[in-house]
Amino acid sequence: MGVVFWHGLGIELLRGFEVTAEGDRVLLPVGAQHLLAFLALHEGGVQRGVAAERLWPDSAQYRAAANLRAALYHARHHGPGMPIEASGQWLCLSPAVRVDLRAARGTARQVVAGLSQLPSGCDDLVGDLAAELLPGWGDEWLITERERWDQLRLYALESLARQLCGAERYLAALQTALTAIDIDPVRETAHRIVVEIHLAEGNIASALRFYQQYRSFLQRELNVAPSPKMTGLVRNLLRT
């Protein structure tokens, strides 16, 4: 995705955290990084007490509040400074800062709604949707945000794969569906799309083999079988 700039200020949350100003990377203390990431994920803003509690859950209330004040200072005074708006006990990141995740969410929603025209090349779009949210960060407050992004990008990748298949762009469709499988190997929808793509191409053996591999995977990992909807795709191909 990369950073999207507005007045030269940007925050990247996908593929890793980075703050840039006019194309130059801004180095920040860890506390300031986490505060900016937290605010970037909460577009409507958040109360100071909530931010302190979520960012420093193992600290006493007074210590968490002190950490928040220090993080605010560093965020505002390193490099060009991040414009953080404060109103009473409410904090939010200024609209002057563009965040790559926000743009990615918008793109994903457009894909799910159905693109009026498919791009000639899908590598960049698929690459954006494949990007993880703050990989390597183990903070508890990220769990729900990661799940929210993962579900949105999965739906977008699956929708894009179906649209590409409908346009008979089978290679791009297959690669897109496989990207979704890499994100969530258990989820059936993308596996079903791969089978549908193989069948659309007339690759019956490939469709059957992929189905059997997924069925074995589910049996081994979860002791369950594919849904009747997926089995129905290859029912006439299975040996009796």
UniProtKB/TrEMBL annotation:
It holds the Pfam family BTAD. SUPFAM superfamilies: TPR-like. Keywords: Two-component regulatory system. Transmembrane segments: none annotated. GO terms for biological process: phosphorelay signal transduction system. Residues 99-238 form the Bacterial transcriptional activator domain. This is Bacterial transcriptional activator domain-containing protein. It comes from Streptomyces rubellomurinus (strain ATCC 31215).
